[in-house]
Fold this sequence. Notes:
Layout: H1 6-10, H2 12-20, H3 28-45, H4 59-68, H5 84-93, H6 105-110, H7 115-134, H8 155-169, H9 175-178, H10 185-195
Amino acid sequence: MILGVGVGAENxxxxxxxxxxxxxxIDDEALLNAFKVVILEQCETGGKNRDHLVVSLDPSLLRKxxxxxxxxxxxxxxxxxxxxxxxxxxxxxxxxxxxxxxxxSLSKVKTATSVPEAAQIVVEHFKNKLSRVLxxxxxxxxxxxxxxxxxxxxxxxxxxxxxxxxxxxxxDPPFQQLLAxxxxxxxxxxxxxxxxxxxx
Length: 200
């Protein structure tokens, strides 16, 4: 993804979508440097053995981008065996997992002093996630008056949310439940709390 140039610069939603998938961008200067490397390689080797150059695959930057995307989804290229070395490098570079992070929402839920406090932590965390995925301001989400799916949560976004919920909140809701017209953000927070043994 090239930042500030071309399609990415013209379509903010496209850039946000790519960032949600744990990708990071390079600026035009980095792009020109990549072109320079390719040209020099072609001159030195006569174009033999190397026919292309892949950029934006720095393991530490990919890990950082994935973390900033709040663990949305696994990168779509991760299952491809050709990237296995890169995936291993990302894992080696990875710091403590989110579940073990004292600042993570799940840890905050565990240490909450009351059910309402725990539920509110989940509500705010889920609102922020929905805001990033649906590109809707977090303050526009209602806790109990509207269902999650009424904000535009289609099957594709639902699949992304389900993966995030499992990875982030250790909950595996049925797909139909996530898209049900009766599931509000408030009800979802109670499901998460109940799954952690926090009930009134």
